[in-house]
Structure to design on (329 residues):
């Protein structure tokens, strides 16, 4: 998420930064008092003790005012950013969701098509699948405009979940950081307080190849760091599994292809061993490949067997190449 900016939405002048005001005001007090202490041991600098007290009081009032302004601004903004769960393709925000999704994720063979995204919301999404999943689609709304979304898929039988897509628009910079954080906060609440406990949450972030522009490479390299920071705000620790990971083909279509990626893991129950033992990493990879990527097609669909064959080959590759322990960052 982009850095927080201030706007008239919070009742303050456009372009202001309450946090910066607090910093400047506190610095003013420190600098003023420090300057007074050099070379003037007997208060012979032309200021009386009464003036000293007045200066300190005025500076403290300025700090309190800036803190109060920041609190009011944040409170008003928080009230205007709402998170809602979409459970049907008939939802009023579904069109905006698909439009924003297409802005972030091209239909280039490495991402789901808009039609496949809509299938997630169908009541029949689990029919004929080899494993049951709870598809969680969250959106952030600011001033009646959809500004962010998060897709997550929870597999109760496996006690694991994966974030498939997560994006926040830059169209409303004053709400962007809060929207990103509140989406994760709502997801945590669902996964932690639900009827079925979830132990691990995964997120594979798209990497880069030779076709990726340098500007996009820089953005993608920053995303794991930003995700770790967002998770930490809610008492969650996001870990980067440090090994050559490739996101498998999402379907059997000719356009679908593998892609370099970064695999992140958030522990929701207990702690993650450091380093990770090979067997646990293989358990994670089997879940991600055979369950998460492998439930696109119903079992009776001829494409299911073909796709699963590809996914099993990817898992076997890791079985043959992974070391006995995997570093965690």
């Amino acid at each position: 998420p982009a850095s927080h900016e201030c706007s008239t939405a919070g009742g303050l002048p456009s372009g202001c930064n309450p946090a910066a005001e607090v910093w400047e005001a506190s610095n003013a007090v420190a600098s003023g008092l420090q300057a007074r202490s050099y070379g003037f041991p007997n208060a012979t600098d032309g200021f009386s003790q009464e003036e000293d007290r007045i200066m300190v009081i005025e500076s403290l009032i300025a700090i309190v005012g800036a803190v109060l302004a920041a609190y009011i601004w944040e409170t008003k903004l928080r009230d205007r950013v709402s998170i809602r769960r979409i459970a049907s393709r008939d939802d009023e925000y579904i069109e905006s969701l698909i439009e924003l999704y297409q802005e972030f994720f091209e239909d280039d063979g490495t991402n789901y098509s808009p039609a496949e995204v809509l299938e997630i919301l169908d009541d029949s999404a689990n029919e004929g699948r080899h494993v049951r999943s709870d598809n969680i689609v969250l959106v952030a709304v600011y001033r009646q405009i959809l500004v962010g979304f998060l897709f997550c898929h929870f597999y109760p039988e496996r006690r694991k979940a994966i974030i498939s897509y997560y994006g926040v628009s830059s169209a409303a910079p004053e709400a962007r950081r809060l929207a990103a954080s509140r989406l994760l906060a709502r997801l945590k609440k669902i996964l932690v307080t639900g009827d079925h406990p979830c132990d691990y949450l995964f997120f594979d972030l798209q990497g880069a190849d030779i076709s990726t522009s340098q500007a996009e490479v820089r953005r993608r390299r920053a995303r794991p760091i930003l995700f770790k920071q967002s998770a930490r705000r809610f008492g969650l620790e996001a870990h980067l599994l440090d090994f050559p990971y490739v996101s498998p083909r999402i379907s059997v279509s000719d356009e679908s292809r593998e892609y370099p990626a970064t695999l992140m893991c958030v522990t929701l129950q207990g702690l993650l061993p450091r380093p990770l033992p090979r067997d646990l990493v293989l358990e994670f990879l089997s879940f991600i490949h055979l369950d998460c990527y492998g439930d696109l097609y119903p079992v009776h669909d001829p494409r299911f067997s073909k796709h699963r064959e590809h996914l099993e080959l990817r898992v076997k590759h890791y079985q043959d190449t992974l070391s006995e322990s995997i570093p965690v960052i």
